Amino acid sequence: MSHGTLCGFCDEAWWNEARLRCTVCAMPLSGFRRASVMHYRCGDCLAAPPAFDATVALADYRTPLDALAVGLKFRARLALAHEFARRLAWSAIDALDECDRPDVVAPVPLSARRQVERGYNQAWEIARPCAKALGIRGDATLVRRVIDTAPQSKLDLDARTQNVGRAFEVARPVQGLHVAVVDDVMTTGATLDALARTLKAAGARRVTNLVALRTPKN
């Protein structure tokens, strides 16, 4: 019997992911192979660039990988976070300019209430081993969620943007830093955009998202 965290089917699903993605928001583009350099943009990011500068995503939010995200987020299957982190570190090394690696890795923060209810922040469970694998400082409290917003999954795109518009506050100096922000799933990007705007307003030089799964459509 295998003692691995993932079965062979899920493991193969990771390695068979070969989508060409927008390098800003990680939305899948037409084509079948990954970009080898960071210069592809989707129409939305060309027309209205988000506050973040780049996004690295492992795969689409799809079967069977979606079940892994649910297991981590709602069923405390924390070993899955290390699987996400290991693969994110590899992908980040491949995708990001070696001369401009992030200075610090931070998770998308939960509100205090939700953190207490869940008992952990799934984004930090991914970010911590990812930072270690990259040899970069991880900081669980770099950004605070100061407004306990409604769950994003229950809202449409416009409501998501309004919901998180002023939800975050930077807790430590980020002037001139390249910040990597980690999350488990990226859907519309509204949360990550709001977080990046907060970091940029505080002086961050660059913000790169590291996300495990990306929904294929906004």
Automatic annotation (TrEMBL):
Q: Which InterPro entries match?
A: ComF/GntX_DNA_util-trans, PRTase-like, PRTase_dom
- Entry similarity comment: Belongs to the ComF/GntX family.
Protein name as annotated: Amidophosphoribosyltransferase
